[in-house]
Specification:
CATH superfamily of the largest domain: Alpha/Beta hydrolase fold, catalytic domain
Number of domains: 2
CATH topology of the largest domain: Rossmann fold
Shape: globular
Strand order of the largest sheet: 1-2-4-3-5-6-11-12
Order of helices and strands: HHHEEEHEHEHEHEHHHEHHEEEHEHH
Distance between the termini: 40 Å
CATH class of the largest domain: Alpha Beta
Number of strands: 12
CATH architecture of the largest domain: 3-Layer(aba) Sandwich
Length: 401
């Protein structure tokens, strides 16, 4: 983790402030229109009709300004409270089995009595979301249960990875890491991929069936046009703008990625930090918030090729679902994966629509579906993560078919 992932956050800070200012200006501009149309208001605004009709427009204008000022001040206080919070992640990294470029293979131990599993995170976020804090670590939970646990830590692309595409990561780094895991454990092992890591795990399982016993896909997108097709359409429409930027920069910078994530729910960060402003800084809730925001603001850029493959190939063209996504010349086909598979779908996911994650289930020959009552990140590190995901995953990894 960088020395201070809070220094420039929540990233992109300027965008979060701009969203709030736009909301304020839009609200002020709409007031006269709402008041004039109050008798004919429809939908959720209809109940406000009588109050708007009777309201003094000048007083209403002042009230909206006061509320906007309160919200912006709460947001800024929340940001300052987060930046000055004394919490630091207390977990030390486990032993490293393999280092290649900026990629590391971490060994969390475990007896291996219940088999072994290689955890594969997304390329766009730090791996320690799978080992966030005591009591909120999938890696350490599985190791304590008796699984031998390995974790790929991609880290930030360095000079060696500058020209990497997905084939370099999967057919190169992941395949070599898998061989090391098999040697260390003594036999084949399970793969568990989280979010984007699920697609990497699926491709790896197809390429190396002799080394993979099971495949778990945790909140992994598959049909990128399911659930929220407008998001994919937006990315496709941005291609003429983004491609020249990627060519000029040679990568997709973190703030650009964070802006795309923020577009999914523009008011999410302001809401979170406004609420955090009112928490006691030493409370468990505050520590949980800080640990997660530290991780969220500790992301990494994508290489140019990976950004092009994912934004335009996955989201734009929906290649995984269409069967046209290739890794090192081999089309990725869930239908060809013979090992047992688990598809975990968080029902409240705003990052990966549940319909997108669920789409791969029917394409896997031997799959089980786990519906999780949580969000994309809450499933992995929320209060109920052990009950909702950790334990069901552990049970499935050792269950007979």
């Amino acid at each position: 983790m960088p020395r201070n992932p809070r220094a420039q956050g929540p990233r992109p800070l300027v965008l979060h402030l701009a969203v709030q200012m736009a909301s304020l200006l839009g609200s002020l501009a709409a007031l006269p229109l709402l008041k004039n149309a109050s008798p004919s208001l429809k939908g959720p605004l209809s109940s406000l009709g009588p109050e708007l009709a009777a309201a003094n427009l000048e007083a209403l204008h002042k009230a909206v300004l006061a509320e906007a000022d309160r919200q912006i001040q709460d947001f800024l206080q929340g940001v300052l409270a987060w930046q000055g919070n004394p919490y630091h992640r207390p977990l030390a990294d486990p032993p490293v089995l393999l280092t290649e470029g900026t990629t590391r293979l971490l060994d969390y131990g475990g007896t291996g009595r219940l088999g072994a599993v290689l955890l594969i995170p997304s390329l766009v976020n730090r791996a320690y979301i799978l080992d966030l804090a005591p009591g909120r670590s999938l890696a350490r939970f599985l190791a304590l249960q008796g699984h031998r646990v390995f974790l790929i830590d991609w880290d930030q692309p360095g000079e060696a990875e500058r020209d990497f595409g997905l084939s370099d990561y999967i057919a190169g780094r992941l395949e070599r890491a898998l061989r090391v895991c098999v040697r260390a454990h003594g036999s084949k092992l399970a793969l568990a991929g989280y979010c984007m890591g699920g697609l990497l795990a699926l491709a790896l399982a197809q390429r190396r069936p002799e080394a993979v016993s099971r495949l778990a896909l945790l909140a992994a997108p598959w049909d990128f046009h399911a659930g929220k097709a407008e998001q994919a359409q937006l990315l496709a429409s941005l291609k003429p703008v983004l491609e020249p930027l990627l060519e000029a920069l040679g990568e997709m910078p973190l703030d650009m990625l964070q802006a795309l994530f923020a577009a999914l729910d523009p008011d999410l960060a302001p809401r979170k930090f406004r609420a955090f402003a009112h928490l006691a800084k030493e409370s468990p809730e505050a520590q949980a918030f800080v640990s997660l925001e530290d991780w969220a603001n500790d992301g990494v850029p994508l290489t140019k090729k990976v950004a092009q493959e994912t934004l335009f190939g996955w989201y734009g063209d929906n290649r995984p679902f269409k069967g046209t996504w290739e890794i090192a010349g081999l089309a990725v086909k869930p239908q060809e994966i013979a090992c047992p598979a688990l598809v975990a779908v968080p029902g409240q996911d705003r990052i990966v629509p549940p319909a997108s994650a669920r789409a791969v289930f029917s394409q896997l020959p031997k799959a089980r579906l786990l519906e999780v009552a949580a969000g994309h990140i809450g499933m992995m590190v929320g209060k109920g993560a052990e009950e909702k995901l950790y334990r069901p995953l552990s049970d499935w990894l050792q269950a007979s078919w």
